[in-house]
Amino acid sequence: MYRGKRYNDAIALFHFFFNQSNIVPNIVSYNYLINTHCDESRVDVGLEIYRHIIATSPFSPSPVTYRHLTKGLIDAGRIGDAVDLLREMLNKGHGADFLVFNNLIKGFLNLENLDKANELFDEQVFGVDGVVNATFMDWFFNKGKEKEAMDSYRSLLDRQFRMIPATCNVLLEVLLKHDKKEAWALFEQILDNHTPPNTQAVNSETFNMMVNECFKLGKFGEAFDTFKKVGTNVKSKPFSMDVAGYNNIIARYCENGMLSEADELFRELSSKSLTPDVTTHRTLIDAYLNLERIDDALKIFNRMVDVGLRVVASFGDKVFTELIENGKAVDCAKILKKMGDKDPKPDASCYDVVIRGLCNEGELDPSLDILAEMVRYGID
């Protein structure tokens, strides 16, 4: 509910589970509740929940709690209160979380207070992390201070510490945002450092950013090469691409009308131990329908149902409607019947679309069969 920005529903569910039903919440549940209130500009309510955790819970607030609250306070223009909360975090012995520091550093930079940002940067006791450097770099770039930005970047690299993928990705994002060729050098470097199981230097998001940059520049062939790229170090190993990585490049190919390339990667993904998910199928179905490749859309839609992936009502209504408009009402009825054989059952709106389509085509017997199925399943 939180991710869907259905904040009132998120709060209601918390109340239902943890107040009415007497389930004991954990810190993750509390953090989502705090984040919900902060995103709704109710940071004081978030602080009340934080105080409630301290007073009544057998566990302590987590670093994530302080990340949400400091960001909420800064967004509300209360950076002084955010600094006080940072001090409270440290005084309680929770440890210095670099993302909490990063929130405050970014806040002071946005207030043009470079001295205070530097003071906090020097105060860090958690060691080196490129996320904070990336914040400074982005601010310097936006101010037209390229030398200072790159000095910050090089000082980070000079420390030669082992960066996790999340840190590398933030640095790549800033370098790409400001059109710096150093992004590609960093990509090559972290590919060289990718030596699992000892060192995981990249993840699928790393590849997604670089692939997307290739597409942005119109370098479609280079995008595929980047997707398959491996480090040159003798110990480097290929990254085992996940479904999210395949989905990204398939989506980029579809956006550019390159369906044959998307098809090839879909087949490759299907042949692996990975499984194409809802996003994979929806991306291809939408692309086929946009290009009026109706039979191909029908084929993938059939596959989506056959492998047991859920078809939500809004998507099902849209696809059924477009297929029926192209003379595929009977085929849609067959797909809907397969959907009805599984749980959760299709939404009533899907049945309505297909029955109307069958009636309009004079296919009354199949429409009666579908109607009987609705009755059998108790679908209104």
From TrEMBL:
Coiled-coil spans in chain: none
Gene3D superfamilies according to UniProt: Tetratricopeptide repeat domain
Pfam families per UniProt: PPR, PPR_2
Keywords, alphabetical: Repeat
PPR repeats: 62-96, 242-276, 277-311, 347-380
Domain of life: Eukaryota
Protein name per its UniProtKB record: Putative tetratricopeptide-like helical domain-containing protein
Taxonomic source organism: Rosa chinensis (China rose)
